[in-house]
Write a structure and sequence with these properties.
The complex is a heterodimer of chains A (309) and B (448). Chain A is of the alpha/beta class and 309 residues long. Chain A has two domains: 133 residues, Rossmann fold (3-Layer(aba) Sandwich), CATH 3.40.50.1370; 152 residues, Aspartate/ornithine carbamoyltransferase (Rossmann fold, 3-Layer(aba) Sandwich), CATH 3.40.50.1370. Chain A is 38% helix and 15% strand. The radius of gyration of chain A is 19 Å and the shape is globular. Classes of the chains: A alpha/beta (309), B alpha/beta (448). Chain A: Catalyzes the condensation of carbamoyl phosphate and aspartate to form carbamoyl aspartate and inorganic phosphate, the committed step in the de novo pyrimidine nucleotide biosynthesis pathway. Chain A: One of its GO terms (cellular component) is cytosol.
Chain lengths: 309, 448
């Protein structure tokens, strides 16, 4: 078995082989989503609980669809509908849910490390659906699948990630994953949002001038800019951010013609990405969403496989 | 079932014991040699290479080969949580933990509920300590009312009530003007102002040291500069006003060099660090375990080395615990929301003895930093191991190996960063103000 772990908590701890195994599996499962009857019995009788401590539409929906297409029984708990609002600790919540014998927890939390602590506690598998500013492994997997479909290989591929790296779990997971697969990763944004320390922990380059690097990029990953960063004195204004780092067709004139433009969503149109770029020919943003379902099916499958008869 | 016994000071019996062949280490009296020590009715009667009592019928004789006899330790940075947060710790449990760790006097920080900013609270703490305490409690009063950083407390009245120092520990006095006035005013009394150095704008929402690990783990950072800027400010204020300051819980390389340079210039500054700052680094946060969340945060190996260098060259005068007990309610939650702090009373000597084994400090230097220096800084009369003086001392087995198990602690706090670790060196017996307040293992019976 290539993937023998109980959980999927982050890309950092995965090997190149494990990542490629999940991507291969996702490629083969993709076809199910194109059928007229989009369901296979693989996870029949398995219980998947989506435990979301932070609002999410796309990730939660994507996991839910993936689990249901594999015939798992799924249940969702979000902050507004559970005892979370009554002040129960997350460990108490998990202990209670654990008592109902789930097979897989899908967990999102605004604080880094929460899925890791839950994974140490529970016998069920844990999938990290995004923890704080730490990791979002399935997002990186779907990004890597999308890149692989278009570019064929990661060797020597130049991936440029632009935006608020400091607060981005998507960036962290992609940094680990892409560098393991052989891509060159450059991070770009204002120094207040791009910690230089990343150069000493991962094989990445940090740059502050977008136009210096944009012409070399094969893949451009644009991150969402949280509007509150302005109030926290990371930025003078959204307007100035958009002037310096927003992706427009004007700036893209200098880019390679086959540049792939990606965004994990949701997009702030007109801030980090101009609308005509988001909807333009180089954008693969909706393919990312499609691949998200396949990747999550693959992840659920490898974890459930551990205890399939 | 604990393999030790502890007593309240008021119920404990005066020590009448003869120690044979114990290594006495007491820099205050220039002692570091094997001696016989006779204690009668809680008073050192004789300290000499050989004491022979022809008829020791009423006397307990302890063959103390391999054991050390040290002056009782003084911990100048402790949170006893009473009044107000008795579910975390009380004066009773906190002083029990202290004597179990060889500490005979603790300075209690004022961030209780209510804050120790008026004589009624100071008196309450002292009365409770007298009633249920196992060691001496030295209240530290607030610099500003309610720790709000605005109005100075009535320092004369607080000292009259028993306060030994002033601190807004837990936060910095934000206004440089208020801090300057407080330093000027406190110099009437020749008591130290203890500075918690932290720029709250730079540290806001931070959880761990800002650097490689915080970036990797996606945890908000507390930069070193948040501490260093205020260390520099308070040194400059002390230099300007001529007042005496003591810098609490030094955690960074630059803080050490700022203090070193200030001392060279003759600024009246002393400094302390805590065992976790010379024995642990930020990597330990990798498990997201909030036991390791502390303020200032655990730093990096180069900071640890600088702290050790600062201890070795005398820049850092004191090892104090910053014992900060919390319950699982504050600790067993998401790391962002968890409280800062670690317990330390029952592990500090053992962790600090590591500095002796690694050759950083001599036993005498360690005793100075954990006993004589803090007493001198707080202005507490200090005699050490000296004939005809009331006996406050501890007996330590420097080679005893033990595994830290917080369920065995006297402290209510469970937030121990050394849980499960093997430590070497253990307190066997504690005598505070002549009374036997703590005994472990074969010395338990002495407490009866």
């Amino acid at each position: 078995m290539i993937y023998a772990r109980k959980d999927i908590l982050g890309i950092e701890e995965l090997t190149k082989e494990e990542i490629e195994h999940i991507l291969d599996l996702a490629s083969s499962l993709k076809e199910i989503n194109e059928r007229s009857i989009k369901k296979v019995p693989t996870l029949r009788g398995k219980t998947v609980i989506h435990l979301f401590y932070e609002p999410s539409t796309r990730t939660k929906m994507s996991f839910d669809i993936a689990a249901k297409r594999l015939s798992a029984d799924t249940y969702s708990i979000s902050v507004s509908t559970s005892s979370v609002v009554k002040g129960e600790t997350f460990l108490d919540t998990v202990k209670n849910l654990e008592a109902m014998k789930p097979d897989i927890f899908v967990i999102r939390h605004s604080v880094s490390g929460v899925p890791h602590r839950i994974a140490r506690y529970t016998k069920a598998s844990v999938i990290n659906a995004g923890d704080g500013s730490h990791e979002h492994p399935t997002q990186a997997l779907l990004d890597m699948l999308t890149i692989r479909e278009h570019k064929g290989t990661f060797d020597g591929l130049h991936v440029l990630i632009v935006g608020d790296i400091l607060h981005s779990r998507v960036a962290r997971s992609n940094i680990w994953g892409l560098s393991k697969l052989g891509a060159h990763v450059t991070l770009c944004g204002p120094p207040t949002l791009v910690p230089k320390e990343l150069e000493s922990i991962a094989n990445v380059k940090v740059l502050y001038n977008l136009m210096e690097i944009l012409p070399d990029a094969d893949v451009l990953m644009v991150l969402r800019l949280q509007r509150e960063r302005q109030k926290q004195s990371f930025l003078p204004s959204l307007r100035e951010y958009s002037v310096l780092y927003g992706i427009t067709n004007e700036k893209l004139k200098k880019a390679k013609p086959d540049l792939l433009i990606m965004h994990p969503g949701p997009i702030n149109r007109g801030i980090e990405l101009a609308p005509d770029v988001a909807d333009g020919p180089r954008s693969v943003i909706l393919e990312q969403v499609t691949n998200g379902v396949a990747v999550r099916m693959a992840v659920l499958y490898v974890l459930a496989q551990r205890n399939l008869p | 079932m604990k393999n030790s016994r502890v007593r309240r000071l008021k119920d404990a019996h005066p020590a009448t014991v003869l120690f044979k062949g114990v290594r006495v280490v007491d820099p205050a009296n220039n002692l570091d040699q094997e001696m016989d020590v006779l204690v009668e009715d809680g008073v050192f009667k004789e300290i000499s290479p050989r004491i022979d009592i022809p008829d020791p019928c009423n006397l307990k004789v302890i063959k103390a080969d391999g054991l050390w006899l040290l002056p009782g330790l003084v911990d100048m940075h402790v949170h006893l949580r009473e009044p107000g947060e008795e579910y975390k710790e009380t004066i009773e449990t906190g002083t029990q933990a202290a004597v179990a760790g060889g500490i005979v006097a603790v300075a209690s920080m004022p961030n209780t509920k209510p804050v120790n900013d008026n004589p009624a609270v100071t008196k309450y703490i002292l009365d409770r300590a007298k009633e249920i305490g196992s060691c001496t409690v030295l209240p530290v009063a607030a610099i500003t009312v309610g720790l709000a950083g605005e109005t100075m407390t009535e320092m004369a009245a607080l000292i009259e009530a028993g306060a030994v120092a002033f601190s807004d520990d837990g936060k910095s006095v934000r206004s440089s003007q208020v801090m300057r006035r407080a330093l000027e005013y406190a110099s009437i009394f020749d008591v130290p102002v203890i500075c918690h150095c932290e720029d709250p704008d730079l540290s806001r929402n931070g959880v761990m040291n800002e650097g490689v690990m915080s970036v990797k783990l996606g945890i908000r950072g507390i930069p070193r500069i948040a501490e260093e800027i205020v260390v520099a400010r308070d040194i400059i204020l002390a230099e300007y006003t001529g007042a005496r300051i003591h810098i609490a819980h030094v955690s960074t390389e630059k803080s050490v060099s700022l203090i070193r340079e200030a001392k060279k210039r003759g600024v009246k500054v002393t400094a302390e660090t805590a065992p976790h700052y010379f024995s642990l680094t930020e990597e330990i946060l990798e498990t997201y375990d909030s036991r390791f969340k502390v303020n200032p945060p655990l730093r990096t190996q180069s900071d640890v080395e600088a702290i050790i260098q600062g201890l070795a060259d005398g820049t850092i005068d004191v090892i104090a615990t910053d014992h900060a007990p919390h319950s699982p309610i504050e600790k067993d939650i998401e790391i962002d929301f968890a409280a800062f702090g670690m317990v330390g009373l029952e592990t500090s000597l053992a962790v600090s003895l590591g500095l002796v084994r690694s050759g950083v400090l001599t036993p005498a230097e360690l005793v100075k930093k954990m006993s004589q220096n803090p007493a001198d800084i707080l202005g507490i009369p200090y005699r050490g191991i000296c004939k005809e003086e009331e006996a406050s001392f501890i007996v330590v087995d420097p080679n005893a190996e033990w595994i830290v198990d917080s369920t065995e602690f006297y402290s209510k706090g469970v937030n121990c960063p050394f849980e499960g670790k093997k430590l070497v060196g253990r307190v066997e017996l504690t005598v505070c103000r002549g009374k036997i307040v703590f005994g472990r293992g074969e010395y338990q019976w002495l407490v009866e």
